[in-house]
Specification:
The protein folds into 2 domains: about 260 residues, Alpha-Beta Barrel (TIM Barrel), CATH 3.20.20; about 60 residues, no CATH class. α2 runs parallel beside α3, α7 packs parallel to α9 and α9 packs across α11. The chain starts with 8 loop residues before the first strand and ends with a strand. By secondary structure, the chain is α/β, with parallel strands linked by helices. It is globular. The strands form 3 sheets. Strands 1-2-3-4-5-6-8 form a 7-stranded parallel beta sheet. A 3-stranded mixed beta sheet has the order 11-10-12. The protein has a two-stranded antiparallel ribbon with strand order 7-9. The structure holds iron/sulfur cluster. The site of iron/sulfur cluster has 10 residues, from loops.
């Protein structure tokens, strides 16, 4: 999250695949969210909220309710009213700052949007996935890039905060195609983006395509690179990237559930430290100038510099040809600055 803003404390209420007109090739919400299929009703919403507000980390100034894992705006009007109505008393007591929902770009209906607005929905996250129609069709999304464009514009006009979820590595996608998706999203200026590289999950159509050799997922280094380049472009355009990589759920992590794809428990950190390394490369001495060096960076940048299992230290050695004899944190240094000390 950019700008030093505190992260919201999100209370997720999963409605796995409820409201979805069909299954997209990559999707298996029950495994991703570890929720069983079944009707989520107002009573269940109240139970989840009552449990969440007992958490010691609960902070009404930061707390939001989120309906995730389905197509919220495709639920029927009465269901939307019931679910949001169950949240209303808690909103009125000032226990939450608002509600967010995730939905498909082709699911928006003005009456339901008006109801959502009245009932305290502040943020709508759209599963855009790609801005390339061929990728969308091969992934059986059932909507076009133009529908995503229209959806973002409509939601912004109605005063919602708009989040865009993107998925590099879908069938028909490539590095270049995904970067053009990102450029199109930059033009749309949503308020935030999430990046979820496509994974091959057991039981999905993508899993069957993979097993027949019809789909090759991204490798981990490739996915990290695409997400690093994309995040840089988005954040340089003032659009915060609030999540990179799927959250793990116990069901997703059960052996054999992820058949293939760029899964890593610290995926977001891999991307952030790669972005950091790209940003500091020009401040390092050229190869052959020093035999041994130390580096001093802002104290909060030390983990990013070190990277996952010290891969950042190995990278500095490779780039400079020098042994890295120490890393120091200095709170007075600005972010992204590196001071190199000859040893
Ligand atoms: S619309 Fe979203 S939740 Fe529904 S099947 Fe497709 S990806 Fe899954």
């Amino acid at each position: 999250m950019s700008g030093g803003r505190k992260k919201p404390f999100i209370v997720p209420i999963f409605i796995p695949n409820q409201g979805c007109p069909h299954r997209c090739v990559f999707c298996e919400q029950e495994k991703i969210t570890a929720e069983q299929k079944g009707h989520v009703d107002g009573e269940r919403v109240v139970r989840i909220i009552k449990t969440a507000i007992k958490s010691p980390r609960f902070d009404p100034a930061l707390a939001e309710i989120a309906f995730y894992g389905g197509t919220f705006a495709n639920l029927n009007y009465r269901t939307i009213e019931e679910l949001l109505g169950a949240v209303s008393p808690f909103l009125k007591k000032g226990l939450f700052t608002g509600i967010r929902v995730s939905t498909r770009p082709d699911s928006l209906d003005t009456d339901k949007l008006a109801l959502m607005k009245r009932r305290g929905v502040k943020t709508v996250e759209l599963g855009v996935q790609s801005m390339n129609d061929d990728v969308l069709s091969q992934s059986e999304r059932g909507h076009s890039a133009q529908e995503s464009e229209k959806a973002v514009a409509l939601l912004k006009n109605l005063g919602f905060q708009v989040g865009v979820q993107l998925m590099p590595g879908l069938p028909g996608d490539s590095h270049a195609i995904f970067l053009s998706t990102v450029e199109k999203v930059v033009m749309l200026q949503p308020h935030m983006v999430r990046l979820y590289p496509a994974l091959v999950i057991k039981g999905t159509a993508l899993g069957r395509m993979y097993e027949k050799g019809e789909y090759i997922p991204l490798g981990l280094p490739e996915a990290v690179e695409i997400c690093a380049e994309s995040s840089r472009k988005l954040e340089d355009a003032g659009i915060p990237v609030i999540r990179i990589g799927l959250m793990s759920s116990p069901t997703l992590l059960m052996e054999g559930q992820i058949l293939a794809g760029p899964w890593h428990t610290a995926f977001g950190f891999l991307v952030r430290s790669r972005m950091y390394r790209k940003g500091i490369a020009s401040q390092l001495p050229a190869r052959g100038h020093l035999e041994k060096l130390g580096v001093r960076v802002r104290d909060r940048d030390v983990p990013l510099l070190r990277g996952y299992r010290n891969e950042g230290i190995q990278w500095i050695s490779m780039v400079t040809g020098a042994e890295v004899a120490g890393v120091e944190g200095d709170p007075s240094l600005p972010p992204g600055r590196v001071e190199v000390i000859e040893k």
